[in-house]
TrEMBL record:
Superkingdom assignment: Bacteria
Pathway(s) per entry: Cofactor biosynthesis; adenosylcobalamin biosynthesis
Membrane topology annotation: Multi-pass membrane protein
Keyword Endoplasmic reticulum: no
InterPro entries, per database record: Cobalamin_biosynth_CobD/CbiB
Gene: cobD
Family in the record: Belongs to the CobD/CbiB family.
The protein's name in its UniProt record: Cobalamin biosynthesis protein CobD
TM region(s), chain numbering: 6-25, 59-81, 159-178, 294-315
Localization (cell): Cell membrane
Function field: Converts cobyric acid to cobinamide by the addition of aminopropanol on the F carboxylic group.
Amino acid sequence: MELAGLSFTGIVLCVIIGIALDLALGEARRLHPLVGFGTLAIWVEGKLNHAAASRLTGLLAWCIVVLPLVAVVQIIVILAIRFNPWLGAALHAVVLYFCVGLRSLHEHTAPIQAALEAGNLEDARQLTSMIVSRDNAQAEEQDISKAAVESLLENGCDAVFGAIFWFVVAGGAGAVLYRLSNTLDAMWGYRTSRFLKFGCAAARIDDGLNWIPARLTALSYAALGNTRLAWQCWRKQAPQWSSPNAGPVMSAGAGALELALGGAAIYDGVLEQRPLLGEGKPALAKDIQRAWRLVFNASLLWTGVLFLVAVAKILNALNGSAHA
């Protein structure tokens, strides 16, 4: 199978290199492409999201900011591969590196655990406010730990597995399409008066792109933790969540970790009673590391499966050649 000039084996190699680059280098501190994309998205939204904006307007805005960039990436990687296959493969891997955030998940949550374990609740609250939108002014250790664990589990799909899945399906352009769509959902996909119509397309497209990755992520969590409880929580609790993808991911992850998550949380000063997630003890500081380890091990699981499939295809090809 050829994909944008690369064989399946080449794509798998790029996945391994891309993840290795992310773990070694972390998120780019300067000139990250998503920063420029965010600026563009804000500008387009300011121009098009007016009082008469409709769902069609939001879809048009999504197309304006996403499709040209995806097309540019596709053209560049194809031209690079035609010029030099190794250069093209390296470019694919670099594109994936910019689209995944495995190490950044650890970098954003490990300091929260460290602050909690040091008894510095104020720092832990401030750090948690950087990764979740809920109010943390009065949050205690269990509230902060729960927020961090939920963020890790959900972003295991949004920041890691979704990008890998679409990279395998459609190469660097697929990963970029997913990452930009996910970013627009985070910027526009709110059910507020400002974004209810304009952001509908961004939210629905992200839901569609995440449908398969979310369920593969949930399966990965279940396979690496308490499988029975993860499946039970996924089946019973996921339908109660409004998000068709966050529900399976977080309920399966909470069950795999044997933690009780979800429930009450404060947003914009209002106490919301969210559906329950998982079953077991309340989350504590040490469970933040456990959740990160689950996401990390699931990444290794996906990479290992892809590697074994690639090896099997190579062996099958060699066996076919030997009998020719």
